[in-house]
Write a structure and sequence with these properties.
Shape: elongated
Number of helices: 13
Order of helices and strands: HHHEEEEEHHEHEHHHHHEEEHEHE
Radius of gyration: 32 Å
Strand content: 5-15%
Distance between the termini: 81 Å
Length: about 400
């Protein structure tokens, strides 16, 4: 390991620190400094002269090189982290968002309106862009739904609305969506739509962007070409005061979308790709698509709208039905029946009475549970599981047995 003019005892201490002590210290802020301190500490305990800082640095560099050569000989070492194996078109589709490095202007006033968000879907097998969506709002569940409709449906109608004539045949239902951990990718609407159409969801590890390297590299390529447009903000905030993009901005959102379509369909899809051994994404889709065609939606008129509705975000509305219940003494109580208990049910009684619902019921959902609002004639039950006699016909057995409901006056 490098030059061996050190004494054997010192060489042994350096070796032990590099091979045994250093791997157990994963969070060192200054590794070389900590190495020098540890080696000097052990040399002082052994009453021997420690090596210099430069000598320790050379030993550490030689150790890293030997460790890299050792790891390179292990099975599977040629596979980089985050490598995905896609066997056919639409087998794995990566989706990601980015804030474009471009200032847009309004159609009518031509005044700056801000930077658009760009959402892109990439087929890993062929490296084809199978969907793109441009919007001014921050990405949410609705953005993902609109992007997926462009992934699944033919793009002829959308391209015609932009007055663009290009060949962009890539579409189909993905087998698997590879996503990051953004909130819009974990929405209830996305999961429900994927269950309906048999699409699997896979999330890359948090804090490891190289697990989405295909889509990240594509985003970088597109942003490099965006920098040639007027109103570009650049990739770094440095120097923006000297060249304010608001003064040069002249592109509308429709013009930017048309430019993006031409950039992808006419340029990117027909350029040789290193990940495809020199083939173009368009030719790879044409070849692989004939062998294994992607799944398509049924050729029926309502299917596109039905697909969009399945992926749009859902809002639940609480519906209550009140029923009068006669007590033995003649007092009337109200029984509110609902399938799910929202927080607003906590106060649905008179000012001097309330319904207490345990946290386990408000956080989760119940298949069938009735919220009982007591009259002033009721007293606090002797046990949490007891229910007044007049409500016994309305409360389900699970409520009576487990004591989900507690009355307080």
């Amino acid at each position: 390991m490098g030059d061996t003019r050190l004494a054997a005892t010192v060489e042994e201490i350096v070796r032990e620190v590099l091979t045994d002590w250093l791997p157990r210290q994963p969070h060192l802020a200054h590794p070389l400094f900590e190495l020098v301190v540890e080696i000097r500490k052990r040399c002082a305990a052994a009453s021997i002269s420690p090596p210099s800082r430069s000598t320790i640095s050379r030993r550490w560099r030689a150790h890293r090189e030997e460790e890299a050569l050792r790891l390179a000989t292990l099975p599977g070492s040629e596979i980089p982290p985050g490598h995905l194996v896609a066997r056919c078109p639409m087998d794995i589709v990566q989706i990601d968002h980015t804030l474009a490095d471009l200032m847009l202007v309004d159609d009518a006033s031509r005044r700056p309106i801000g930077r658009p968000w760009l959402s892109i879907a990439l087929d890993v097998s062929t490296r084809c862009v199978v969907g793109v969506y441009v919007g001014m709002d921050r990405p949410n569940a609705a953005t993902v739904a609109l992007l997926l409709t462009r992934v699944v449906l033919p793009k002829d109608g959308w391209l015609a609305s932009l007055d663009v004539s290009v060949d962009w045949p890539m579409h189909g239902i993905p087998q698997l969506l590879h996503l990051d951990n953004a909130a819009e990718f974990k929405s209830r609407a996305l999961r429900a739509g994927c269950r309906e159409y048999g699409v699997e969801l896979m999330y890359r590890p948090a804090g490891r962007p190289y697990f989405g390297g295909h889509i990240e590299r594509l985003m970088r390529t597109i942003m490099e070409r965006v920098h040639s447009l007027p109103g570009s903000t650049g990739s770094s905030p440095k120097g923006r005061k000297a060249r304010p993009p608001e003064k040069e901005a002249s592109v509308t959102i429709r013009e930017f979308e048309r430019w993006l379509v031409l950039e992808i369909a006419e340029r990117y899809h027909h350029n040789a790709h290193r990940g495809l051994q020199g083939a173009t994404p368009f030719s790879e889709w044409a070849t692989a698509g004939k062998k294994t065609p992607p799944r398509l939606l049924p050729n029926a008129a309502p299917e596109p709208l039905r697909f969009l509705i399945q992926f749009l975000p859902m809002t639940r509305r609480w519906r209550f039905s009140s029923v009068s219940c006669k007590h033995l003494s003649g007092s009337v109580c109200r029984v509110y029946c609902c399938t799910e208990i929202p927080t607003s049910v906590r106060r649905r009684s008179s000012p001097n009475s309330s319904v207490v619902i345990p946290p386990s019921m408000t956080k989760g959902r119940a298949s069938s549970c009735e919220v009982l609002l007591p009259c002033r004639c009721h007293r606090h039950p002797s046990s949490p599981g007891s229910i007044p006699h007049c409500f016994s016909n309305w409360a389900p057995p699970s409520t009576r047995r487990q004591g989900y409901l507690r009355l307080r006056t």
